[in-house]
Amino acid sequence: MSIEEKLLLNKFVVDKIPHITLKREFCSQCDLKPCLHVCPVQNFKLEKGEIVFDWAGCLECGSCRIVCKSLGRGAVEWNYPRGGFGIVYRYG
Ligand code: SF4
Ligand code: SF4
Predict the structure, then answer these.
(1) Is the domain defined by 17-84 classed in CATH 3.30.70.20?
(2) Cα of 39 to ligand 2 centre, how many Å?
(3) DSSP secondary structure letter of residue 55
(4) Could you tell me if 16 and 49 are in contact, meaning their C-beta atoms sit under 8 angstroms apart?
């Protein structure tokens, strides 16, 4: 079974309140933009030179928080989703 197939088994209860937010003014000063490379589900994208982020489908791995703090500009404000929301792992 591929990684993509395993991810499709998961269930997401997406909260309308984001559990991850960005201070976008910091992103414009971030040269490396490492978040684009570490998110396993590509929730960070670059559109017209600006970072676009969508928290739906987040695996709650925390990689963006770590890499933003260590290599980026510290723009990521990270929390787990509220109770009852977020990913429900169904495999492994
Ligand atoms: S690493 Fe952090 S500061 Fe840099 S673009 Fe990504 S979210 Fe913004
Ligand atoms: S916590 Fe993981 S899956 Fe969620 S947005 Fe950050 S890097 Fe992507």
Answers:
(1) yes
(2) 5
(3) -
(4) no
Regarding pTM above 0.85, the answer is yes
Burial class (CB in 10 A: 0-12, 13-18, 19+), 57: middle
Q: Is 75 touching ligand 1 by the criterion CB < 6 Å?
A: yes
Q: Which atom of ligand 2 is nearest to the CA of 42?
A: 8
Q: What are the DSSP E strand ranges found in the chain? A: 11-13, 20-22, 44-47, 50-53, 76-78, 86-88
Query: For residue 58, how far is its CA from the centre of ligand 2 (angstroms)?
Result: 5
Number of Cβ atoms within 10 Å of the Cβ of 10? 13
> CA–CA separation, 56 vs 12, rounded Å?
8
- What is the per-residue pLDDT across 18-46, written as a single tens digit (0 to 9) for each? 999 999 999 999 999 999 999 999 999 99
